[in-house]
Amino acid sequence: MKAMILAAGQGKRLRPLTLTCPKPLIKVDNKELLAYHLEKLKQANITDIIINSAYLSEQIVDFVNNYADKDMHLSNSIEDGLGLETAGGIIKALDFFDDEPFLVINADIFLDCDYGLFAQYQLQSKYYAHLFLVKNPQHNLKGDFAIAEDGHLITGNAYTFSGVGIYTKQAFFNLAVQRLALRPIFDKLINLNKVSAKYIDIPWFDVGSIDRLETLNNYLKNKN
Predict the structure, then answer these.
(1) Is 224 a residue whose pLDDT tops 80?
(2) Quick one: which of 137, 155, 135 has its CA closest to 145?
């Protein structure tokens, strides 16, 4: 399985840290968020990875190009201006993937789990995508989605999207490279019954603000 890490966001809520450092390179317990993802992906035997970037992209490209682990096969997908958002970034990078399902992870999250949980998941052929959902955090108590009894994703507020999903090229069929978020894609696939979902009970952090960054640092400090 190949993977993509979405790393093009501006991280406005993490200012002033992100005025000079892109969000994926913010350090948590003295290690970049992006480094955590790469290490966990390798442990799950995923070594072919593409990372997109837009805001302060030169720093991310430099990090990727000089990443010390030469067993990893890392590629860059550089976007102009403010970037293409989540779906647009994936669409731009589709040629990197073959016809097999691929894993996509938001760079600005932290998951305290073995990424084999994602790598070993077998997407059913009737679905174009699969989302991993988590418990609604305090900053998103209204939730994002729910799960039907047969396992397909439905609208609702039971769970929050973790920022981790498995996709096929069919999910983005006939879509041109454009600035586009993933939510409209999810809504379309829900209407077609073409996306499945699973709730995962793991420690999960959205590192989207200074307060949440502090919460994660405290979690890791107490754990260690």
Answers:
(1) no
(2) 155
pTM assigned to the model: 0.95
In this prediction, residues 76-99 reach a mean pLDDT of 95
- Cβ atoms < 10 Å from Cβ of 126: 9
Average pLDDT, the chain: 95
Q: In this prediction, what percent of the chain has a pLDDT beyond 90? A: 89
Please report the domains of the chain, with CATH numbers, ordered by start residue: 3-223 (3.90.550.10)
Q: Work out whether the CA dihedral 145, 149, 195, 200 comes out positive or negative.
A: positive
Q: Residue 78 in contact with residue 54, Cβ under 8 Å?
A: yes
Identity (one letter) of the amino acid at 209?
A: S
